[in-house]
Amino acid sequence: MKKDKLSILVAASEAAPLAQAGGLGDVVGSLPPVFRDMGHRVAVVLPAYRHILEKSLPFEPAAIGLPISLGKVNLTADILMGELCPGVPAYLVRRDEFFDRAQLYGSSQGEYIDNRERYIFFSRSIPALCEAVGFIPDIILANDWQTGLVMALLKQGIFPQTAGVFAIHNLGYLGLVPPERRESIGLPDTYYTMEGLEYYGQMSLLKAGIVYAQEVVTVSPTYAREIQMSEYGLGMAGLIYSVRDRLHGILNGVDYRIWNPATDQNIDANYSPRDLAGKALCKKKLLKEMGLPNDLLERPLVGMVTRLFDQKGCRLVAEAAEELFALDLGLVLLAAGEVSYQQLFAELQAQHPSRFGLKLGFDPVLSHKIFAGCDMFLMPSLYEPCGLTQMFSLKYGTIPIVRATGGLQDTVIDPNEAHSTGTGFKFDRFHKDDLIAAVRRAIEAFRNRKIWQAMMRKAMAQDFSWEHSAREYVALFERAISSKRGEGRADTL
Question: H helices of 326-363, where?
């Protein structure tokens, strides 16, 4: 089926600039405006977090006291309406008991103990929201485990003409519900089987999205292949393989209105491929801000903007740190995450204060300064569904050093692959020796100004804007609608 204009509802647990904890927020914040520009009707729905309500944005009540069931418990939700950006409505599901909290998902002590119930409630509120505001979409694009249940609700038949596409941003978060909390999901028992939500004795809300969506998408072609293998499949490789005919890898995109060194207002000097002079000033200012000496102006400065989790290769960096500093480089790290890693890197910074600049927490402005002021950008991920920061670093002429996995494999060109100037450096094995070897190759190139500037310009010329990926999404939506409306009557398991 092909329609000139689709009605699209994007359901997610975060969306920049309203509320964000990671890359999911970047995607949900930047993709809907592209759908709007293509002529489609699009809206976003997310929880009414304290962080959003404290901003005093013009959100107005759209519906009050909508009845929502959480298992056998009857609750209510209020719906607020505002805008994600001009022309893209944003609906907030408000229930302060669940969403009036300091953080989105948890504190430094760990995730909130009732996260499953919070997002089951959020998912169950979406059909009631659509009816209350008069927006029954052609397609619901649900994102990650927090909205996986929406696909099961569509399968039940809540909106017979609405198709579901489920996006896996990270298979590592399964949304597991233990047996004693299963009742809150509120589905018939026939859904709690191996063919449905059951996952090694628990229920997986992420699995609900995979099983019941018309189409499944993940955020890079390589990651779509990797998660069909046991090494990356986290016990779901067989399921992922079984849905391969409706599994698609579409690369995430970048909003270059925000991420562009020629226009970025967050950096100390603008620059472009034609005039790179401003990058040196950005480096000088970054060194000062991070308390690092000026002798690093002529030496490689490596940046990381990341989350402190095993997936991001943090342990690998810590293991390699002494040998990296012996290469006479500087390292700048902006990160938030597990307390053990915060302590580990704080101790490392105390041992190497003239070579290691550390800022713990989430600082969007500093992240821009790191992309602009560093020479290289390090992403040694154990796995990386897509990754956005390597795309940001490419645009800023900050050469990425990455492990060849997922979206990192798809977006970075190693000189050994290109047989000429590449855009970055890759290593295959998840081992500190391989990381160090890749850094050594980068430093060797850095010492040849002509080669390095050629790499910078080639990196900055890469185009990962959303327009191409958005067209792939729309084609996938049309396929999902055809599949849904070809099913005949709704399934009522």
Answer: 339-351
- Is 491's pLDDT higher than 50? no
- Tokens describing residue 314: 């943090």
Task: List the domains of the chain with CATH numbers.
Answer: 7-253+467-485 (3.40.50.2000), 277-463 (3.40.50.2000)
Dist CA 320 CA 302 (whole Å): 14
Q: Both tokens of residue 461? A: 């010329």
Rounded Cα distance between 388 and 441, Å, is 23
Q: Which of 257, 270, 254 is nearest to 369 (CA)?
A: 270
Which strands, in side-by-side order, build the sheet including 176-177? 176-177, 202-204, 198-199
Distance, in Å, from the CA atom of 258 to the CA atom of 368, rounded to the nearest integer, reads: 10
Alpha-carbon span 240 to 247, nearest angstrom: 8
3-class SS of residue 198: strand
CA distance 200 to 104: 27
Element (H, E) at 392: helix 389-395
Q: What is the pLDDT of residues 382-427, one digit of tens each?
A: 999 999 999 999 999 999 999 999 999 999 999 988 777 899 999 9
Strands, E assignment, 309-355: 330-337
Residue 249 pLDDT exceeds 50: yes
Who's near 103: CB < 8 A, 6+ residues apart?
21
Distance from chain centroid for Cα 477: 20
Per-residue burial over 412-447, b if 16 or more Cβ lie within 10 Å, else e, is bbbbeeeeebbbbbbbeebebebbbebbebbbebbe
Mean pLDDT of the residues in the chain: 95
Nearest partner of 88 among 146, 157, 162, 12, judged by Cα: 12
